[in-house]
Amino acid sequence: MPVNHFYNAFDTGTLTGRPAHPDEYRSPFQIDRDRIIHSSAFRRLQNKTQVFLSGEYDFYRTRLTHSIEVAQIGRSICGWLSSQGGIPGDDCHIDADLVESACLAHDLGHPPFGHTGERTLHRLMQPYGGFEGNAQTLRLLTQTLFNEGRDGMNPTRALLDGILKYKTLHAEAAGAPNHYLYNDQEKWLDFTLGGQAFPVELTPGAERNRFKSIECQVMDWADDTAYSLNDIADGIHAGFITITRLESWAAGQELSPEQAEHVKFLCTAIRERRVEARLNRQIGDYIRAARLVPEANFLSAMTRRHQFRLEVDPAVKARSRLNKRISLDLVFRSPQLQQLDYKADVILTRLFEVLHDRYIEPGGSRLHLMPPVQEAEIEKAPDAAARARLVCDWVASMTDAFAFRTYRRLFDANFGSITDFV
To answer: How remote is the C-alpha of 412 from its chain's centroid?
Structure first.
């Protein structure tokens, strides 16, 4: 296997040693990717909300199809950057397998019902350390995936750095609703940074969270590319974004000439029924908008992954932000989706309250409401915070359909029988 000199032993290191197979034909990053793809957490993404509740229609994106699209875009960005040069040295390039792994893993920790589910669990878990999708992804990779020895999938340091969009602990986040890690994840954060302390200028919060490896930056832009274009496409196909609504929305905004031209482009695509083709063509524009710029920081001497930053053409970034504004105002803030958000909040809140009274702060009931494996772990947990985190793990792992079904089994007198499977 050709050696990629962009990476060293620091990048491929794992917290605990990986047994070396004598006939191993895969790189450490390919092993990471394969372990993610073969996990149940990855498969569950097929029934988790991206924009619309999974199962609404068969052609809307789910968290799984979104993650696959992000992975393809991430690999393409790596190919584009490699073709442009910018990294000195022979056999030296950003590893596409590593970026693909980060892209496939980036949404593993998201709960059912999309960002509504994340906000609800954050609120319910505040007394016990909060809930955050990126922190939950880290927890899966390092602790719960495969449920063997609490080591998760024992990922490489470079993969952990590739998925860590946020590097501020919950205790440092000052009540922020998202963008933090759990307090007990400091161990893995420290491992990712090679034991190096943050310099004083990288204060907790936004400044520290902007500190990302080049692979994480590529993953982030691939994610932005996918959802800023695809959320628009799904919103149009679902009838939330129409020419009339789009023109009415634009009339109430202060748009630059470039922004007005983009709205006109979307209206033309809708009118000519060429939405998918026109928006998919723009993916190439987003990929080619990226370039590498040399960077120096406190980890640059240890790894080349922190010797570069990704710079994106401001015009393309502005187009991405405009697409997000349109989706937010015409899709996510629509009464239809807001009603579904309310229902999702009610479902998760009531489920958590029942599990709270049974497992987190038990009040005498010994009903078996969770699978035996999870119950056994909760029984061994040292305190309420640890019990709450295990309960939260189970709720966050639920698909949309499983959460609906569990809710109805508990609260709908006309639903469920002894033949139902948990």
So the answer is: 32
Residue 251 φ/ψ, nearest 5 degrees: -65, -25
Handedness of CA 163, 15, 129, 357 (dihedral sign): positive
Asked whether residue 160 carries a pLDDT value surpassing 70, the answer given is yes
| Domain map (residue ranges) of the chain | 1-13+25-339, 340-403
97-101, 381-385, 399-403, 417-421: least confidently modelled range:
417-421
Only one residue has tokens 């980036």, namely: 106
Fold of 1-13+25-339: Hypothetical protein af1432 (1.10.3210)
Which residue type, as a one-letter code, is found at position 402? F
Q: What 3 state SS string does 35-78 have?
A: HHHCCHHHHHHHHCECCCCCCCCCCCCEHHHHHHHHHHHHHHHH
Q: Which residue has the tokens 């993969």?
A: 159
Six-digit token string for 371: 């699978």
Please, which residues bridge with residue 55 across strands?
none
For the chain, the average pLDDT equals: 91
In one letter, which amino acid is 336?
Q
Overall average pLDDT of the 56-74 stretch: 83
Alpha helices (runs of H) in 239-293, residue ranges in sequence order? 243-251, 257-271, 275-288
Amino acid at the residue 59: F
CA torsion angle 194 199 204 208 (round to 10): -70
**Rounded to whole angstroms, how far apart are CA atoms 248 and 238?**
18
Is the pLDDT higher at 150 or at 146? Answer: 146
| Segment 178-190, tens digit of pLDDT | 899 999 999 999 9
